[in-house]
Structure formats: structure tokens, C-alpha cells
Write a structure and sequence with these properties.
7 helices, single chain, alpha+beta, 4-stranded mixed beta sheet
Length: 253
């Protein structure tokens, strides 16, 4: 079985990045791994040494070297990393793909699997761009010189009111309904069990909750869902790994 293969796994972790959810996945899968900590430069960009591992120099980066392999496999992009590690080491984090008796059939997939496949791509493709936009706008408003701040704030305010805020509200309302209607009694996005889709979702929603981008009063199920993720023992172990090295951990962007 693939999950029985021995491998040297190295996670290159960067502060204020998506790397924490990969660390959570490694803890949830009970894998042995090496954790290498990197820090952002004064410019808030990733340090240049990451480009020695992957040309884009972004984090997270994971290297996997199977026993007997000459060179390690370099994995970048959170979704690709999580899918690869789940495929080889985290079968319990994937829902059953097909309904019984409909294996391999078109539209024979379970609802849990279809949700899983969707949210593995939705998180980075739809939700994260709006949250990054909100972060950039906030940085501009904070860093603008006082003499142009009224102009920049007015321009950003218009974009926020006509575009950003409605899209964020729409996404949070959608996710609130998805938590509400999750199959098998719910609790998680794909049903009653934690999946890799929840792990990949943990970073944007944790960051949004930490910055009060959505409220407990308006989205109570979504708020409770994030609390439930952050109360998971493997999540807490992953946080403690960083606290032990860095002294603290901030889940927000």
C-alpha cells in the first residue's frame, strides 16, 4: 500500500502563509516529517532562499523523497500538496467516491465526494482572492500618506461597497448554507467526518474569523465550524509545533 511507503518529508513553513494547513495535514496523518521555518522579509515577501527549492520561492513547499529515490519530489501550491499527501498517506481524509453499485459510472459519485472535489478547488479559486484583496486594501488604507489618504480611502471604499463586500457576503452565506446542509448529520463541509477539504478551508476561514471579516451573529454555523476545526487535536498539535519554535502563532493573514 502507498501509505506504508517510507519517505523523508520536509515542510518549508513560512509565517503568515498557507503553510500551516499543510502542517495540520501532516499531524492529522501522523507522519514523520522535518519542519523548516522561514520568515518574511521586511517587505513582507518570502525570503529569497525559498527560490533555491522552487523557482517561484513561495510557501508552502514540501519535498518528499521515497526510500531508495535519488532525488526528492518538490511540491508547491497548497492544493496540489494536500491532494498528493492525502492520496499517498491520508486515505481517511477522502470521502468514499462512488455510491455502492455505481462504481465508475457517470453521476455515480457520492454527495460527500462531490463536495470534497469542489471545495478542494473553491478555496483557492474563489474564496482566497477576495480575502487577499481585502488584505491589500486594508494595507493601502493603513500605509497611505496622510495627504492622499482621503483619496485612496474614498476609492477603496467604493470598490469595497460595490464589489468586495457583496462578494464576501455572498461567499459566507454560501458556506453557512453548505455547513447547514452537509450530509450524514454534518459537522464538516463534506459530512460528519473531517476531510482534506476542511483542512484546506481552515486557513482562509480562520484568517477571516480572526480579522472579523464575518460575524458570529450573522453566520453562526460558519463561526462554530471554524471553532470546531481549531479544536481538533491534530490542529492544536500543529499550532503547538509553531508555538514551541516561534513563541506564538497567529492564524490571520
Amino acid at each position: 500500500m502507498a501509505s506504508a511507503q517510507k519517505a523523508k518529508i520536509v515542510l518549508h513553513w513560512l509565517d503568515k502563509s498557507r503553510a500551516q494547513r499543510v502542517l495540520w495535514l501532516l499531524e492529522e496523518s501522523k507522519l514523520e516529517y522535518e519542519l523548516k521555518i522561514h520568515h518574511r522579509a521586511v517587505t513582507k515577501m518570502a525570503p529569497p532562499e525559498l527560490k533555491n527549492i522552487h523557482p517561484l520561492g513561495k510557501a508552502p513547499i514540501v519535498t518528499v523523497q521515497a526510500e531508495g529515490a535519488k532525488d526528492p519530489l518538490v511540491l508547491a501550491e497548497s492544493g496540489a500538496i494536500i491532494e498528493y499527501l492525502t492520496e499517498h498517506f491520508g486515505a481517511h481524509l477522502k470521502p468514499t467516491q462512488y455510491q455502492q453499485g455505481k462504481e465508475g459510472q457517470l453521476q455515480g459519485e457520492t454527495e460527500e465526494w462531490m463536495r470534497y472535489r469542489y471545495f478542494m478547488h473553491y478555496t483557492e479559486g474563489t474564496l482566497m482572492p477576495f480575502l487577499v484583496m481585502a488584505l491589500v486594501f486594508n494595507s493601502i488604507k493603513t500605509a497611505s500618506p496622510f495627504f492622499i489618504k482621503p483619496i485612496s480611502n474614498a476609492l477603496i471604499g467604493r470598490v469595497e461597497s460595490f464589489f468586495l463586500t457583496p462578494n464576501l457576503e455572498s461567499n459566507f452565506s454560501f458556506l453557512e448554507e453548505q455547513v447547514k446542509t452537509a450530509p450524514n448529520g454534518g459537522g464538516y463541509l463534506c459530512g460528519s467526518k473531517l476531510t482534506a477539504a476542511d483542512i484546506i478551508m481552515s486557513f482562509p476561514l480562520g484568517a477571516a474569523k480572526g480579522r472579523s471579516t464575518f460575524s458570529k451573529e450573522k453566520f453562526p454555523l460558519l463561526w462554530s465550524y471554524v471553532d470546531r476545526l481549531q479544536a481538533t487535536e491534530s490542529y492544536k498539535r500543529a499550532v503547538q509545533k509553531i508555538v514551541d519554535v516561534e513563541g506564538s502563532y497567529d492564524p490571520s493573514l
